[in-house]
Design the sequence.
């Protein structure tokens, strides 16, 4: 059974919702990442989404684009990211780690080599923004054979038919992108999210995480009341960007944000 | 007739290449586009409107011109130039923008976006948007905004908003990224006019179909002028829209040799080039699987070419397929060789070619002397060189 399944089952039993922070691996420098992953867990994160830096992040807004650029200055690519996960696993065997990024690094490595490397590093899920289910068969089969979940995105304009498609191809959880746009843009509308989640739930039993537009403890709480998981990305990475000359301060502010979200979600 | 070339399949695959690799929010828009395209492709009213625009607005058919003096000088094959430089706005790009804009109008879209490198596609898009009264936003890498100032001004005159893109390498690929971001944000009212045979299906097939007017005319003109098929076709390949437009109607004519010319920049061996078919590897970028310039981590490598229009790390997926199957051959030409082609055509025929097209001219200078005098090469003169005067003057140390 995958760590993601175990984690969502545990949370459901406790009546808790998953807090899923996202950081770009290697941002603001390679030494920051693994200690920060542990800090996130200590502060209340249930699952970690680890961004694989890519030179052409087409679905990302400026905050995550710049995070990618900073990491690439240190040449943090897919192999390095896998080594971060392996390092993290030395002292944390429980917390699921999901790699989030674009398809090309995986294509260039080769699907089978990637699946083997991800298994060795004990990665739990892979979310590839530009890999729709129609093109994903080969990758999904290789990952599933190794107990790694392929996670798919749903959008506000996804039809019921598409939701069922994601349900049949994907596993672990589904990630609902709450706004039409890039990461970090706009404000999510609670009523819209609620309505869409009703439609999603009618078509899948998989847990549903919601992201894009979760900015603070208050939105995290609102989303936690509706979904199974809350994903926080740009708001989190903004703390790094604000403190580029002082990564320790960034870490402190990131921990504070997670704690405040955790508290709001559990209250 | 079972071996007739018939690509792509219904999900947009050219063998392993092509396909649809986009974020989920774009999927409904791409499906909508594909449905509309399949429908209007067979709609006599749409075809009639398109044909009328191509004739009266673009100025088609473009001539097929026998470059006799240049052919004699090279001492081999007879060279015929397909004069896409004579189209309205000065390049082949408008064949496609006229088609996509008519489609946008039929689909009820009110806003047009586009990416541009050299600015030719941006100008061609701004032109048709002005004519149809559609809002137009063009994304252009900040580096290109600087080196193609004239085209930026043209787009502004035509009423388009030009957005300089400051992310990444600040060139064409980044303009494409930014256009994708705009599209995903404004998906309901916006039509994205992609300028080349890349992007998610149906773009590579659709842009090709709008550009095949080049090859269809050339085939007919060649028959009329010489009574035979050409022996070789030569065209430059960045994304590859002018090339596929010329090549496509000849794919089943096995006697016709097909050659695509990529930009070797400082030379393929230096790593500073834009030649993914010659020196890249298959990967996924901008919605399709194709040959790319990427490093071992899958990060996209910056490209180099004197011609902004060829300065792109990918290439249309159909070219990837034609390369793998051996139906077409892909070669490369350096900046310096391209300049020789530029000067040769200018001095011997009185035609100033675009720097992109100059790559095709330079390869023709190598190919023609190896062929017999009664053999025929058709070279696509995809655009005129006016936009490059500044680059040329600067390179030769002249201030204008």
Sequence:
């Amino acid at each position: 059974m995958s760590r993601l399944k175990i984690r969502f089952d545990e949370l459901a039993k406790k009546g808790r919702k998953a807090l899923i922070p996202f950081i770009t691996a290697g941002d603001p420098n390679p030494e920051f990442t693994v200690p920060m992953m542990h800090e996130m867990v200590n502060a209340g994160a249930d699952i970690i989404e680890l961004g694989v830096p890519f030179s052409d992040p087409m679905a990302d807004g400026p905050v995550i684009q710049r995070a990618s650029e900073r990491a690439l200055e240190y040449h943090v690519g897919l192999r390095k990211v896998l080594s971060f996960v392996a390092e993290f696993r030395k002292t944390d065997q429980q917390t699921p780690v999901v790699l989030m990024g674009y398809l090309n690094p995986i294509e260039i490595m080769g699907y089978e080599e990637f699946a083997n490397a991800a298994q060795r590093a004990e990665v739990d899920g892979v979310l590839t923004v530009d890999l729709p289910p129609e093109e994903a068969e080969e990758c999904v089969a290789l990952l599933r054979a190794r107990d790694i979940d392929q996670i798919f995105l749903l959008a506000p304009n996804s039809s019921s038919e598409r939701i069922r498609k994601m349900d049949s191809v994907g596993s672990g959880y589904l990630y609902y992108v709450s706004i039409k746009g890039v990461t970090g843009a706009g404000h999510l509308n609670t009523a819209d999210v609620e309505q869409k989640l009703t439609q999603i739930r009618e078509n899948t039993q998989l847990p549903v995480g919601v992201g894009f537009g979760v900015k603070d403890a208050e939105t995290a709480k609102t989303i936690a009341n509706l979904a199974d998981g809350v994903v926080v990305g740009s708001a989190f990475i903004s703390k790094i960007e604000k403190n580029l000359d002082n990564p320790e301060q960034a870490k402190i502010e990131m921990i504070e944000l997670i704690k405040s979200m955790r508290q709001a979600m559990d209250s | 007739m079972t071996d007739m070339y018939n690509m792509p399949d219904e999900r947009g695959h050219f063998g392993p290449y092509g396909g649809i690799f986009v974020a989920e929010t774009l999927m409904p828009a791409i499906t909508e586009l594909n449905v509309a395209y399949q429908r209007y492709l067979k709609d006599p009213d749409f075809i009639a409107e398109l044909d009328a625009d191509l004739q009266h607005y673009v100025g088609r058919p473009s001539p097929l011109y026998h470059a006799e003096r240049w052919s004699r000088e090279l001492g081999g094959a007879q060279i015929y130039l397909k004069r896409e430089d004579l189209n309205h706005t000065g390049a082949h790009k408008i064949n496609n923008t006229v088609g996509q804009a008519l489609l946008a109008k039929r689909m009820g879209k009110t806003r047009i976006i586009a990416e541009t490198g050299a600015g030719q596609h941006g100008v061609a898009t701004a032109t048709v948007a002005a004519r149809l009264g559609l809002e137009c936003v063009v994304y252009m890498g900040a580096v290109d905004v600087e080196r193609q100032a004239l085209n930026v001004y043209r787009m502004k005159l035509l009423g388009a908003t030009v957005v300089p893109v400051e992310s990444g390498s600040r060139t064409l690929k980044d303009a494409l990224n930014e256009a994708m971001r705009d599209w995903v944000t404004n998906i309901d009212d916006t039509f994205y006019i992609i300028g080349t045979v890349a992007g998610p299906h149906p773009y590579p097939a659709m842009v090709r179909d709008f550009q095949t007017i080049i090859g269809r005319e050339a085939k007919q003109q060649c028959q009329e002028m010489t009574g035979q098929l050409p022996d070789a076709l030569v065209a430059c390949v960045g994304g590859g829209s002018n090339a596929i437009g010329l090549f496509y109607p000849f794919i089943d004519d096995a006697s016709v040799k097909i050659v695509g010319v990529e930009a070797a920049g400082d030379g393929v061996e230096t790593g500073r080039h834009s030649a993914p078919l010659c020196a890249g590897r298959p990967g996924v970028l901008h919605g399709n699987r194709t040959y790319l310039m990427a490093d071992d981590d899958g990060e996209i490598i910056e490209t180099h070419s004197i011609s902004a229009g060829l300065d792109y790390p990918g290439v249309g997926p159909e070219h990837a397929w034609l390369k793998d199957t051996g139906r077409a051959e892909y070669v490369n030409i350096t900046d310096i060789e391209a300049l020789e082609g530029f000067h040769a055509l200018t001095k011997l025929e009185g035609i100033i070619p675009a720097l992109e097209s100059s790559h095709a001219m330079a390869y023709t200078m190598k190919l023609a002397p190896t062929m017999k005098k009664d053999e025929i090469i058709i070279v696509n003169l995809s655009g005129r060189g006016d936009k490059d005067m500044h680059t040329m003057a600067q390179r030769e140390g002249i201030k204008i």
Notes: Residues 3-266 of chain A form a domain with the TIM Barrel fold (CATH 3.20.20.70). Strands of chain A lie at 18-24, 48-51, 97-101, 125-128, 149-154, 174-177, 208-211, 229-232.
